[in-house]
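Hi C.,

You asked whether I'd gotten around to modeling the 301-residue construct. I have! Everything is below, sequence then structure, no commentary in between.
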Amino acid sequence: MQEKGGALLNQKSPSETSCFGSAEDWYMSQGKHAEARELMYSGALLFFSHNQQNSAADLSMLVLESLEKSDAKVADDLLENLAKLFSLMDPNSPERVAFVSRALKWSSGGSGKLGHPKLHQLLAITLWKEQNYSESRYHFLHSTDGEGCANMLVEYSSSRGYRSEVDMFVAQAVLQFLCLKNKTSASVVFTTYTQKHPSIEKGPPFVQPLLNFIWFLLLAVDGGKLTVFTVLCEQYQPSLKRDPMYNEYLDRIGQLFFGVPPKQTSSYGGLLGNLLNSLMGTGEDDDTEDGQEDSSPIELD
């Protein structure tokens, strides 16, 4: 059976997945999930190499099915394989959407979170290469790669943003990282972005007041003093009014880091309220990233 599978993988012009599916069924019936998964993964790569997108997508989903049915532990090599399959799929295909949704769910290990940070990082890098900056940004936010996020945002801002908004790109990312209780990535994304962006003069202090606010905010988060946070937000209200979302993020940051009690009612509803809920999550006892139920990209602009 192993030799038959190997012969299938050597075909020059693949067009069907039925033979791979039969081989997978046999391996699965024998409890050989790893062998079945390897066969499906190799077959998917072969189909991709021949631009057989539909067949490759079918096998990619079988790889996921094998992971879901087995007791395989989440590991870097498996996450890298899933990210590789994702990178080869047609960016506009519905199969890709279904694949990434199931892959993230599996990688969460049943924790209720929206996927493993490593997988989010790998997905973000692929989407960055495709210049899909909005979705790349979403996945970077759920990774721990602040430096990669900053480099992507520099490119995004430089190629598609207004020069007057260079500070807003990083401000939004820092505030969102803090809402997800990821202080380390918030600090890294700010430092890297302000050092590398060609339109930002060396600081701190910075020419842009909003950047100075973010710099002070990161220091205040480390200190945890409510009076400092309150005065800071009051003094920089002219800058914070540039985006109505800023004060909503800061309300959440005040709750997480400064002991501010939550508001009884939200001033926003509908789509904006849903965006806040998807970003900020529901749990408050996680260390790095909160769990969310909505995997749609978070818009920064």
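If it helps when you're writing up: The chain has a mean pLDDT of 84.

Thanks,
B.
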